[in-house]
Design goal:
Blueprint lengths: L6 E4 L4 H8 L3 H11 L3 E2 H8 L2 H11 L3 E7 L6 E7 L3 E4 L5 H12 L2 H15 L4 E2 H8 L3 H10 L3 E4 L2 E4 L5
Parallel strand pairs: 1-5
Antiparallel strand pairs: 2-4, 3-4, 6-8, 7-8
Helix pairs in contact: 1-5, 1-8, 5-8
Length: 171
Amino acid sequence: VVKMKRVKLINDPAELVALFRAVDSVNRREVLTTLAEGWTMISDLVAKHGEETYGAITYFEKFKLVESRWEVNSETGRPEKGYRTFYNAFQVSTSLTFDETQELLTVVLMTEKKFKSLESKIVELIGSEGTFANDVARDLGVTSLTLKGLVRRSVEFDFKGHNIVPLKGEE
């Protein structure tokens, strides 16, 4: 069996935040490693990696690092989602000033407590309809690059054009 190399091209510096955060915990790394081996049902992932798997999958889905399909669980006879990684390699093609590098690393390395505090402020600012990104950056007192990094780190909201909008959980 020839394994094809599927490469994700990263040319937006803020995407680096998503990439680093995808592998910044032992649990997320282990889930990603399992998914790189092939299709795995959610029940098997949870059995192997625990409840944190759900958060990892949500994060990977936002950044299109995984794909999913419905499968029938042979033990229960019920349909459930199976997942596997989209990519098994990354090509980074971007340039950053020292200041931009420092801004993005600040977002990547920010404590969970500080991040959650900023994340909840953003959730408040965008409401249920979303808000123009520049207004959010201004209200938070951060640069647009830092804001992009924060959006890349969160599973609560995402960009839609020039706006930041809340992400609706799967119904």
